[in-house]
Amino acid sequence: MTTESNDPSTPADASTPAGKAERARAALLTAIDAQMKANEPPETLQTLVRLMEAGHSREQAMKYIASALIAEVTNVLRENSTYDRDRYVANLQRLPKLPWEKDESTKK
To answer: Which of 14, 59, 70, 106 is the most buried (most CB within 10 A)?
Structure first.
């Protein structure tokens, strides 16, 4: 019998849904950290700084940036296309408005 711990410091089993979600989160954060270290695109680090200056914690700012990365990956997979830097940067610049939220001017 396996039991899952509610202790956040205990890694989830990678074969469980919680474990898979944790691996996905870790991969996103690793990719974002790599973008900031390479300064490519520079807007990733600029977005982190902007969101933190606006009062968001680093953790929350990273979650917002991850949402922009998720949106880009989703578009690439859905459209069977390549990475679109301009689209990704546009999503970063809209944060904290999430990429899937409609602008007020387009709502009917």
So the answer is: 70
Q: Is 108 within the bounds of a domain? A: no
Residue 78: inside a domain: yes
CB-based burial, 20-40: b 16+ in 10 Å, e otherwise: eebeeeeebbeebeebbeeee
**In-domain check, residue 107:** no
Asked if the structure places residue 90 within a domain, the reply is yes
Structurally, how many domains does the chain consist of? 1
Distance (Å, whole) CA 80 – CA 38: 26
3-class state of residue 95 by DSSP: coil
Helix, coil or strand: residue 94:
helix
pLDDT tens-digit profile of 50-101? 999 999 999 999 999 999 999 999 999 999 999 999 999 999 999 999 998 8
Can you give the residue range of the structural domain that contains 72?
Answer: 17-100
